[in-house]
């Protein structure tokens, strides 16, 4: 049986999931062995979170609920790491830093 995990997170970054945030998101997704997918609607369409072209094509602006799911080795860790990255506004700007 393969491990799986999923989560939904609100994008609060001013420009949404574009340019630099997309690069950070896909780079982090690629660091996990699990297959990771994202969607901007709960019922899809789902696309490969490791593809910069597909992530940027989602055109997910601020206020979008981003759905993340993963399957395989490290699925839970991948989803948690990506949710944390979105929650931290992709680590951009001093005003986006939040204390633990």
Automatic annotation (TrEMBL):
Which parts of the sequence belong to the HPr domain? Answer: 4-93
Pfam families in the record: PTS-HPr
The UniProt keywords, alphabetically, are:
Sugar transport, Transport
The protein's job, in short, is:
General (non sugar-specific) component of the phosphoenolpyruvate-dependent sugar phosphotransferase system (sugar PTS). This major carbohydrate active-transport system catalyzes the phosphorylation of incoming sugar substrates concomitantly with their translocation across the cell membrane. The phosphoryl group from phosphoenolpyruvate (PEP) is transferred to the phosphoryl carrier protein HPr by enzyme I. Phospho-HPr then transfers it to the PTS EIIA domain.
Signal sequence, start to end? none
Annotated coiled-coil segments of the chain: none
List the SUPFAM superfamilies.
HPr-like
Protein name per its UniProtKB record? Phosphocarrier protein HPr
* Gene3D superfamilies with a match to the protein in the record: HPr-like (3.30.1340.10)
PROSITE patterns with a match to the protein in the record? PTS_HPR_DOM, PTS_HPR_HIS
């Amino acid at each position: 049986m393969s491990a799986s995990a999923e989560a939904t997170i609100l994008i609060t970054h001013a420009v949404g999931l574009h340019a630099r945030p997309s690069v950070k998101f896909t780079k982090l997704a690629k660091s996990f062995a699990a297959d990771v997918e994202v969607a901007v609607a709960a019922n899809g369409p789902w696309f490969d979170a490791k593809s910069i072209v597909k992530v940027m094509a989602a055109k997910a602006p601020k206020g979008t609920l981003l759905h993340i799911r993963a399957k395989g080795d490290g699925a839970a860790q991948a989803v948690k790491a990506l949710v944390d990255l979105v929650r931290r506004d992709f680590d951009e700007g001093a005003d986006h830093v939040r204390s633990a």
